[in-house]
Amino acid sequence: MAYKDLREFIRRLEAAGELKRIRTPISPELEITEVADRTVKAEGPALLFERPAGFDVPVLVGAFGSKRRMAMALGVQDVDEIARRIEELVRIELPEGFVGKLRMLPALMKLSAAFPKAVGTGPCQEVVLRGDQASLDRFPILKCWPGDGGRFITLPMVFTKDPETGARNVGMYRMHVYDGRTTGMHWHPHKGGAKHYAAYERLGRRMEVAVALGGDPAITYGATAPLPEDFDELIFAGFIRQKPVEMVKCVSVDVEVPAEAEIVLEGYVEPGERRREGPFGDHTGYYSLPDDYPVFHITAITHRKKPIYPATVVGKPPMEDCYLAKATERIFLPLIRMQLPEIVDMNLPIEGVFHNLAVVSIRKRFAGHARKVMHALWGLGQMMFTKIIIVVDEDVDVQNMHDVLWRLGNNIDPERDVTFVEGPVDVLNHASGVANYGSKMGIDATKKLPEEGMTREWPEQIEMSGEVKAKIASLWEELGIG
Q1: Predicted confidence (pLDDT) per residue in 23-61, tens digit
Q2: Are the C-beta atoms of residues 106 and 58 closer than 8 Å to each other?
């Protein structure tokens, strides 16, 4: 199910009891963060601050901040539904003969329906601001934490194009607001936007950029997804919502944006220009350190009449972004299984903040199988940033960390079963000695085979007999224990 825009999603949240309207004036400087942080940690609703102090533009936070709201945002009952649809697609084999090709048509039609659609205009251009009027000062942009370097746009969809191929990239990169007309552009070196910018710098050319805020939340999620390089995020968003994203050309730059967005910032970045960005209270629970990043200059701002400003607050988990990460874990598991079919399940624990910890269960078939899986995962896209990988047997419920930690404590000999490697690490990994490069650890917590040096017999796991379990289960209510 596709939402027409962010407003329709808000109405659905409110009807489901998943949204709270806040009419008390609350300041965008620190105070909204404190309310949002308390709410998400109490598993509370999304929040619509209707009167942020000093502004007439409402602020929406926490829209993705629970498992249920994450599923609602993607138009499904459970995000595993999207994973199953992806699995159906990747299992398609090219058929022989005319009849076989006809049978493929329904699946191919679903995919073709995901391609974005150009339209002449859209609600995002109901108000057009240029010159001095095109100022960020009219929006309630948050300063989230006391040590932040200033206000930050935290939920932007940043649109860029490759200068040679014209391929589009949509990414989510925080934007440090320097003044009403300029921001930082926090492009990590491994990201698509940074790749496009580097290409423009080599050519010595200015790069046009557009930033969209709001719209169908599936599009916002698409900007965060770890897709293969040069795969259009809008096709992915269209696949999720099962309806094409309508795109409109910007008024001052040659870039297209979602027509139903709430707010659009248009502008450019110059080659070679850098400015100090940060500090920023990040999803690791620590401040990311200040550094020099490209500068975004605004040429025009367009928005809907009476726009809504969407934002997210990150910090020590659990926070809203954790639920985005858990959705990614489920949705992209089928693609990982394409490369590694021995994988049964994967868990990126919330406390591991995406890139610090992964737990993987496998159908183990040979000596060294767990190590093979570790190294393969470190070679897969953004999994290369995973600091710790724990591999367990297929009977382990990786979503149950009690079970995982029990196996971890029992099943490893540290000298034999711990592997260290070096390679790229996430920019936000503050523990590495230098930025972007450091060590990673793999732990083989599977049962060991004789070929892996086990000269002793591996003990049996304690398990009650099925007969006794069935008998007690039938008597459980009568026993009155609970």
Answers
A1: 999 999 999 999 999 999 999 999 999 999 999 999 999
A2: no
Q: What is the pLDDT of residue 228?
A: 80
Average pLDDT across each block of 10 residues of the chain; the chain has 482 residues. List them in order.
92 97 97 96 96 97 96 94 84 54 52 84 96 95 97 97 93 96 92 92 96 96 87 91 94 97 98 95 92 96 97 94 92 91 94 90 96 95 92 96 95 95 88 90 95 90 94 92 80
The Cα–Cα gap between 364 and 224 comes to 32
pTM over 0.85: yes
Q: Per the structure block, which two tokens stand in for 460?
A: 């049996």
Phi-psi group of 352: left, alpha or beta (phi > 0 → left; psi -120 to 50 → alpha; rest → beta): alpha
List, for residues 258-313, the tens digit of each pLDDT value. 999 999 999 999 999 999 999 999 999 999 999 999 999 999 999 999 999 999 99
Count of the separate structural domains present in the chain:
2
Whether residues 129 and 235 fall in one domain: yes
Q: CATH no. for residue 300?
A: 2.30.110.10
**Are 41 and 136 within one domain?**
yes
19 within a domain of the structure (yes/no): yes
Task: Please say whether the beta carbons of 96 and 225 come within 8 A.
Answer: no
Does residue 99 sit in the same domain as residue 151? yes
Residues 273, 346, single domain; the answer is no
Residues 226 and 106 in one domain: yes
Which residues have a Cβ under 8 Å from the Cβ of 110 and sit 6 or more positions away?
Answer: 239, 242
DSSP helix/strand/coil, 467? helix
Where do we find the tokens 């926490």?
62
State the pLDDT at residue 231.
85
**Could you tell me the residue range of the domain that residue 267 belongs to?**
6-310
Q: Which of 282, 321, 345, 417 is labelled catalytic?
A: 282
Q: Quick count: other Cβ atoms within 10 Å of Cβ 321?
A: 25
The reply to whether 216 belongs to the active site is: no
- Nearest by Cα to 223 from 108, 312, 353: 312
